[in-house]
From TrEMBL:
Gene3D superfamilies: 3.30.70.270. Its EC number is 2.7.7.65. Residues 244-376 form the GGDEF domain. The keyword Zinc does not apply. This is diguanylate cyclase. It comes from Acidovorax facilis. CDD domains: GGDEF. The chain crosses the membrane at residues 25-44, 50-69, 81-102, 108-128, 140-160, 180-200. It catalyses: 2 GTP = 3',3'-c-di-GMP + 2 diphosphate. Keywords: Membrane, Transmembrane, Transmembrane helix. The keyword Cytoplasm does not apply.
Length: 376
């Protein structure tokens, strides 16, 4: 089952986006190490038992290390040496306790300690991502690691209670625990691999959602999100009592074509990002700036009245005018013209408010630019 899981992950490798592949490769290698260890455990009788036991346990401990590394890579953490230390020390200790001093009790304690350290590190990592990654698959993975870690600690306690001494054998009293161990441990490579693939697909889904709703250049919500949010807020404002409060501003950079013509399209792109950042910094509370397209932005206001509409537009205009766009030697003062519209009785849709704000914007351009006009 473990080998099949590792194989499936290998077949799917190329279907995963490039940034997820190192983590998936580590998970696959870890699963194959786990599978190799399990096969050796099953074949203990056929080989010199001492060496087989050390090798089997070592493979499984390095498998667990691989799972921790895969999770770290999945969350963009750098490789660190300490991650391999428990498995290296554990394998050396097992070598000693099997082939030099033959201490079965010591072996159980070493294996339990290494498993616990690696699994607790994986659990802490998964839990620490709660705020960044709310995916259910991440929680399932954390629960899986926790269940196995609790079992391993219980197992160590159980063997200690039975009397761990150098001559202790897991094949003697309490042998059922020796049978249960591989079954519980197998949940990581088998169910864990499913959880890992779900974590990948959940991340891909979120990335697609973000890409579909965000403007690639400025990082602001795109036109699609603007229309969605605008219609939602418009409907809410129309149906709430007292009605009103919905308003928006259409913001257009003045003489933007000149920037492209004189400094190149790429510089124009950087200037667009600059204006986007200025507008974002001027927004308060639930105000939402979005890129409508080209060099035009729209800001959805929150609870604006006709009396403070002009001041709200001025706040945006000032945010751009007060800080020139600087790129190396180049210092370009930028200005924007703004049309503001507040919801009125005659507005039947979000689009009708947008149209009135557009007309106010044209009036601002016609009146000389770098100014705010409020729609009648
Ligand atoms: N660099 C860059 N330029 C863009 C982008 N989208 C639109 N533009 C440019 O924005 C310019 C808009 O020019 P116009 O509509 O003539 O307006 P303007 O020069 O800003 O003049 P006014 O609006 O009348 O003040 C055009 O040159 C477009 O090519 C973009 O994503 N990047």
């Amino acid at each position: 089952m473990m080998l099949a899981n590792g194989g499936v992950l290998g077949l799917m490798h190329k279907d995963l986006p490039q940034p997820m592949r190192p983590a998936a490769a580590s998970w696959r290698i870890a699963t194959l190490l786990f599978a190799g260890g399990s096969i050796l455990f099953a074949a203990q009788g056929l080989n010199p038992p001492g060496y087989t036991l050390v090798l089997a346990n070592g493979l499984v401990m390095f498998g667990l290390t691989g799972y921790l590394r895969a999770l770290r890579q999945f969350y963009g953490l750098q490789d660190q040496l300490w991650v391999v230390v428990p498995a290296v020390l554990g394998t050396l200790a097992l070598f000693w306790l099997t082939l030099v001093s033959a201490d079965a009790g010591g072996r159980i304690l070493v294996v339990s300690a290494v498993w616990s350290v690696l699994m607790v590190a994986s659990i802490v990592l998964l839990i620490s991502q709660e705020r960044r990654d709310g995916a259910r698959s991440r929680r399932v993975m954390a629960a899986l690691f926790t269940a196995v870690a609790v079992f391993v600690m219980f197992r160590a306690g159980y063997y200690i209670a039975l009397g761990v001494n150098p001559a202790f054998s897991v094949l003697g009293a309490g042998a059922w625990m020796n049978v249960a161990t591989p079954m519980v441990a197998a949940t990581l490579p088998v169910i864990g691999t499913t959880a890992f693939l779900l974590m990948c697909s959940e991340r891909i889904r979120r990335q697609w959602e973000r890409a579909a709703s965000t403007d690639y250049l400025t990082g602001l919500p795109n036109r699609r999100t603007l229309v969605e949010m605008g219609e939602q807020r418009f409907d809410h404002a129309r149906t709430s009592a007292p009605a009103g409060g919905f308003a928006l501003a259409v913001v257009d950079i003045d003489h933007f074509k000149r920037i492209n013509d004189e400094h190149g399209h790429e510089m124009g792109d950087v200037a667009l990002k600059h204006v986007a950042a200025r507008l974002q910094s001027a927004c308060r509370g639930a105000e939402l700036p979005a890129r409508q397209g080209g060099e035009e932005f729209v800001v959805l206001f929150d609870h604006l009245t006709p009396q403070n509409a002009h001041a709200a537009g001025e706040r945006l205009r000032n945010a751009v005018a007060q800080m020139p766009f600087v790129a190396g030697e180049l210092v370009l003062p930028l200005t924007v013209s703004i049309g503001v519209a507040v919801l009125v009785q005659g507005d039947t849709s979000f689009d009708s408010v947008l149209r009135r704000a557009d007309e106010a914007l044209y009036a601002a351009k016609a009146a000389g630019r770098n100014r705010v006009e409020v729609a009648a």
